[in-house]
Every structure is written in C-alpha cells, then in structure tokens.
Design goal:
Distance between the termini: 34 Å
Number of strands: 0
Number of domains: 1
CATH class: Mainly Alpha
Shape: elongated
Strand content: under 5%
Order of helices and strands: HHHHHH
Largest sheet: none
CATH superfamily: Phosphate transport system protein phou homolog 2, domain 2
Length: 215
Amino acid sequence: MRIHYDEQLELLNDMLIEMGSLIERAIELTIQALTTQDVAAAKTVRTLERSVDNKEKEIESLCMRLILQQQPVARDLRLISAALKMITDMERIGDQAADISEITLLLAKEPYIKKLEHIPQMAEATIKMVTNSIDAFVKKDLGLAKKVIEYDDVVDELFDMVKNELIGLIRQDSANGEQAMDLLMVAKYFERIGDHAVNIAEWVVFSITGIHNSN
C-alpha cells in the first residue's frame, strides 16, 4: 500500500514539474512576443494558458484522491496541501502571462516609445523564481525556497526602474501616455508573477517545516 502511495506522490511531483514547465514556457513566449511584436507567439500563450488550467484540474484531482483514499500522515498531508495551494498560484501565473499577451496584441503594430530593457529582465527573473520554487518543492530544499523569496527584491527593483522610466517619458511628451500605461501594466503583471512565485516558495517552506509566514 505504501509503495503505491509513494508512487502517487512521485506522480504528483512529475505533474507539478509539467505544470511548471508550461508556465515557464508561457512566460518565455510572452516576453518573446512582446519584444519582437510577434502576434503568433502571443496567441500561442493563450493556448498554453488553457493547458495550464487543465493541468491544475488534473493535479487537484490527484491531491483529493490522495487525501480521501490514503489518509496521509501529517508530513504527507502538509505536502499535498502545499501542492494544492501552489497550483492556484501557478494557474494565476498562466493567467497573467495571457494578460500580457493580450496587451502585446494591442501594441503589435505600434513602434515602441523606448527600447524594452528592464521588462525582459523582469521576465527572466520571474522564470528563475518559478523554476527554483518548483525545484525546491520536488527536492524538499528549504534553502532554495528561501532564496526565491529573497529574490523577489530584484523583481521589485526592476519594476520601480520601469515605472520611473515610463513616467519620465510621459512628462517629456504626453503623446507617450497611452503606450506607457500599457507597458506599465505589463511590468505590473510581471511583478505579480514574482509575487506568485514567492507564494509558491512559502508553501514549499510550509510543506517542509509546517510553518507558513501567515501563521
């Protein structure tokens, strides 16, 4: 019985890795679409979002089966509960990647008011955070989870840079205002993706220690 249960827990890890790969790919395509004004890539992100939603449902179903059929001990129950919380944040990351792609489609035929520099850096940082948070869960690596939480400062600093640059462009020329606000919203979505990665890492900490920062 325990062998079968352990196999199911391993399957849970594999499914989380698959879902993580989907959202990582979504973020990568999102920033590719934005920087190159690639309409096809932006539309692909919407397809990936649906795949993320489906994977969330599959993982949720597995977690509920594990809880109802196996009556897990406290440590395993923490792990399964953390996974259920994590997939909610992962699904929202998929939503926000799709939201950025919608803005990309609106801007696809406009020349940018500035070279995109810090927004791609934000995307790269959030991919790193998402990847590491899921790795921390699978490897039960408390130190890596805490590094993800600390790394959020990098994303926040980049967001402030983007915001200040765009405000400066609006002050120079009010005609920049509409696109500047769209780009600011893009940066805000990336900041939120970073926040969701932090949430995932905090649930990893809970799965290992039984302590969540809200407690």
